[in-house]
Structures
1.
Amino acid sequence: MANGMTEQEAVGWFVRQRDPAHADWPAFTAWLEADPAHAAAYDRVAIADAAMTEALAARPLAADRPDAAPANDNAPGFFRRYGAVAAALLVAVSAWPVYRVAVPTYAVETALGEQRSVTLDDGTVIDLNGGTRVTLDRRNPRIATLEGGEAVFRVTHDPTDPFTVVSGDMRLRDVGTVFNVAREDGRAEVSVAEGAVMFDPDRAALLLRAGQRLHIAHSGAAPVVTRVDPATVAGWKTGRLDFTATPLSDIAPDLSRALGAPIAVDPAIADRTFTGTILIDGRDKAAIEKIAILMGVSPRKVGEEWRLTAN
């Protein structure tokens, strides 16, 4: 457990990062990298905040209560607005055991373009790509539900208590491994970098070994297993996306998660395939245009969304 000062620093960073006007990403990254305890403390604060949100969601808003006090018309400054949040988070972190009992399940979520790493009680590490939501259970750290997006699981193997990943109707069981799972609507993909993982352990019991990829094109479709270079699995962590004869409709979600903006493909070219490597630089504002040229398509901005169309 980090000391009290580390917990206070984590709360401060968490509050500031929620407000883009006060966020300082380079300094935040430097703080995280300075000590492994910092990332652990930040995760505890984020989880405590999620627990508070779930607990308060069931309570009526003050404005809905007949005994609500009049609102203060003075516009609060940053510290006035967020000081109460910080104080509440400090209380939540100190009361962590109570939250674990009161709210057994919790979600870890990232925005498009954001990456995050979470370490479970058993030592398993889950790295979340952008636009990803994973639900975890404090009562059982050996199960995770990928509701959508993409994540790589670095599992602490225990043959007596295998780790399980659930995503839609797909179920995976760890056999001592590092594997990447992606899910977008009905499409799902599992790529194994190390060890092995069991797909559908209670029925098909299909064993996927390092260097194998399982792809499900849509809900109800039969899984297809192909080869993959283990070194390229979870390449998104370093800004590298590798594709082999991949339909543009499957590539678009990967680009969205990496670039931080929704990207869609015109139905007329959705089945067109692309083979190659795309290097992502999130700081390059012209990245989508350069990537479109590489794939032989044209990008068009429609509101907040980019749409890829034929040239």
2.
Amino acid sequence: MTLYVNLAELLGTRIEQGFYRPGDRLPSVRALSVEHGVSLSTVQQAYRLLEDNGLAMPKPKSGYFVPVGRELPALPEVGRPAQRPVEISQWDQVLELIRAVPRKDVIQMGRGMPDVLSPTLKPLLRSLARVSRRQDLPGLYYDNILGCMELREQIARLSLDSGCQLMAEDIVITTGCHEALSASIHAICEPGDIVAVDSPSFHGAMQTLKGLGMKALEIPTDPVTGISLEALELALEQWPIKVIQLTPNCNNPLGYIMPEARKRALLTLAQRFDVAIIEDDVYGELAYSYPRPRTIKSFDEDGRVLLCSSFSKTLAPGLRIGWVAPGRYLERVLHMKYISTGSTATQPQIAIAEFLKNGHFEPHLRRMRTQYQRNRDVIIDWVSRYFPVGTRASRPQGSFMLWVELPEGFDTLKLNRVLVEQGVQVAVGSIFSASGKYRNCLRMNYAAKPTAQIEEAVRTVGAAAIKMLAEAAD
């Protein structure tokens, strides 16, 4: 990526995170040239790119400014520290979300579904067709419990982009990232153990803890920098935590990328208290910035980080292909996989390996990153326009999920039931908490290309929220 694009992305991130507010004067061309060691023309190109994206506005003889009309919602507030570990609840609400049958009359904005209509997926469909037609029927046989060697080799190659030095032998193919997380948790913890989680956190991982009889200790999480290391340290001192589970890159649901220095500090904490880290990197490849962010695993020297990911968010969830690099826990993870699902389906593994080997993955990712970043800007604008005054929203740095915080005391469970009758569904915030916090929050998917129908769906959510608040005030 060229220097001016890198510089434009850096400035754009600062604007979106509120470092530069509407009406603020941006650094001068000369100042940026000196600060970043680039030419004046490089800075000018960066500013032209920001101007094209509506993030900067030139004023004659005055420099560049953040457009006044660009008023973004405030960021979500950081939650309060948990008093103690808790048993996980909210299964009924999760079930309500995941059992929803796709219907043409309902705009589904609650599920973690990528855009599967991109033309860049056509080579994958052709690979799937070729595998099914092969005379030797490779897709119908069991494969190694570790998974298809060709796919593991390709994943090891991809891991270099995140700073990891993995071999095919370090990787276990799983049935989606969910099984990778489940096998990792099961390999380390026993019923009654305490797991520290970022909060809000992925509901699937917490329901795994619930199913295995474990307790979650929710750690406050900043919408820009991630899990509070200070709160985590206090928790580690106070409770016998067995493992830390988090999503540091393109977090679900907040969308932040944890700064590299904080990832290193987190690993140092884990080493000091001798606990494992389960790192969910399922959205890491969808970071809007380049190069993609490093994983915590990339700094791991003693094998305590179990890195989990999948192709469910980058390609398609129906493939059900994930993976885990379990470090020192490899044998235990293999055993957990064996007693749960055994070998993973062979046909999609072979097809994905071919898709990667033939160079189709990177062009597909580039297209998706660009699309999702544009969609993010559109949906944040719609939330600003249609939602109640005082609404807060995240600034995702990757992926396709927006976290929205409505006024204190608002009930998104009640809102969602009203919305389903109007042909829209969102993910209620309480399922992202072990104890049912974030009832005034919701998560919306913005993967699909914006249409008038989707805009109307967002408008419907906002109008229903405004009506409920007005009724509560009467």
3.
Amino acid sequence: MDADDCIIVGAGPAGLTAAIYLARFHLSIRLFDCGSSRAASIPCTHNHAGYPDGIAGTELLRLMLAQAEKYGARREAVKVTRIQPQDGGFVVDADGRSFAARTVLLATGVINNRPDMDELVHAEALGRGLIRYCPICDGYEVTDKRVGVIGTGDHGMREALFLRGYTRDVTLIADGGAHDLSDSCRAALDDAGIVRLDGPCTPIRVDGDEIVVNTAAGEQRFDSVYPALGSVIRSELAVAAGARATDEGCLEVDDHQRTSIPGLFAAGDVVKGLDQISHAMGEAGVAATTIRNLLAEQQPIRR
């Protein structure tokens, strides 16, 4: 079968940025997308440069895809099931078909672990900013508001302390039952004036403009709640192919976004680092340029 220069797996900000770069390098690429980009769930981001009034995640992805397609990128709505190194390149299996590629870029991102709540309620709360997942992205929007953080341990403590930079009214609620906090975590929370409450943290419901969380101390009302429950790194395709990853599942890459498998690259949240759109886009630009130069070493790229 004829081999594409690069197959990109994932059509979030990292994958689409790489597609724009690679298409403008006059390379043949495929962009495989199963439609699960985390960016699509962002109601409106206000910290993406160039959009002073904010932009919805779906609109940002639409504009980026249109830009990639303008230069010849091909998006296919398929789910990749295997990436197999073979004969100096790769075979990528997706929806019962196989595709050959000289290089592969994995931009599959992560999935947020959600609190235990009804899916429709969660969707409503997320769309209205009653539930938020990224204090770096939208902490500004909860300035001086009542904020709940669902989580415990070091991760929950760090998220609560980060949000303390935006509001004095922060409550850390254990997601299961009793908090699991070290003495140093408790001391840091006490020093910041952060309230601690035990779970169970369910049910969670929307009541007007408030989100209501059940706790051991009864129902608590907030303007916004941040789940600090970690995430699932979507690196299983690369790991199954033999790529090295951290204990958490983040793919290990060098300064040029190269994984431990020659020709396999990774960019965005699937790589350990700052889970931010701008950061993912920067990594994708680095990866795409490295891919272009690698292919040119193998065979001159000329018009």
4.
Amino acid sequence: MKDKVVIFWFRRDLRLEDNVGLQQAIISGYPVLPIFIFDRDILEKLEVKEDRRVDYIHQALSSLNRTLHNYGSTLRTYHGKPLEIFEIITKIYDIQGVYCNRDYEPQAIKRDELIDSYLRERGIQFNTYKDQVIFEKSDIVKDDSTPYTVYTPYSKKWKSVLAPANYAPVRVPLEQFYKSNPVKIKDLEEFGFQKTDIVFKQPNLDLAIIKDYDKKRDFPGLDHTTHLGIALRFGTISIRSCVAFALKHNEIWLSELIWREFFMQILYHYPRVVADSFKTKYNSIAWRNNETEFQLWCLGKTGYPIVDAGMRQLNETGFMHNRVRMITASFLCKHLLIDWRWGEAYFAQKLLDYDLAANNGNWQWVAGCGCDAAPYFRIFNPTAQTLKFDADLSYVKTWNPDYEKNIQIPIVSHEEARERALRVYKQAL
């Protein structure tokens, strides 16, 4: 006789507390078998096997698993393609239902449709829930039911319909898990990855940072940002707890959380933006795509100290300050006239908090081809940005300490680059 269980499939929600799908699995009345799949389709695309993000996931799962051991259960981890894993699991257990939280990326939607079809053929319900956002899909739309494509009206509507029930935490009893002997999760080496220098810590909401977020967030030398991007990306913190905290302590940080959901609903409604400009007329831009200049940008050797500092911080740590992300991205698209997709792909390789919707949305915003109302003729001057946001050069000196000793002639003049960008964009449009 197979044991009757329901499956909870962890994905972008690597926590036990305040987890909607997990709560629903538990109240089903059946023992909950928790699983995680190291998806071969995703991992095989990662060329560098010392990937901090994979290590972060591994450590977060290990922490979660230790908690499960205290309740007489364990996390089952698998390595393979999700459909193949479910083919294995359905042979071992009498599955009464599969539960998980929704993902809105195009490939994830296709994956879930495939799993749903497979389970439905076997009479197994595939139950998905909203968890990683406050509002999803068409929750926030215009009066004519079409999606918002500009942030400000979206944000106003988002705030107008927000109610305490939207961000109230959900209680997750931890006594209903399937009882089993403790099992260590798969080692990184088992699927071709290696340990890195990242150390997983349970994320927390730091009042000292968030209360002054609006005053200090733009100054990279202060490093006064939450660093919660990776926690939100992999769900080691609940979005509901973040929104509740932001409502109490800082409206500007709340606006950043709304930007996150804005880009997610854009990706959901317009999946073509993964490879295409939201404003299709921008596909006519005659990008120079000089590979030598692209490599200099990647390596932080453009001759612009703040651009080079940002790229070096990214390469060394997997993180880059938000303001500097805008400066470096604008420099690539406008100063070097290199296709935003090149930069987007490079950030996707390097960023710890890489999120397809946000990365794509912000790169298109900088390039002027995105869904928001950013004019193409807005071109950040790296020198002016430095004077305004890093006047004492504390950020530059931290990440580009040799800039004074090895003074490099900028690979392009700001004025000449600006004029060229305006000319090329105007011709295309």
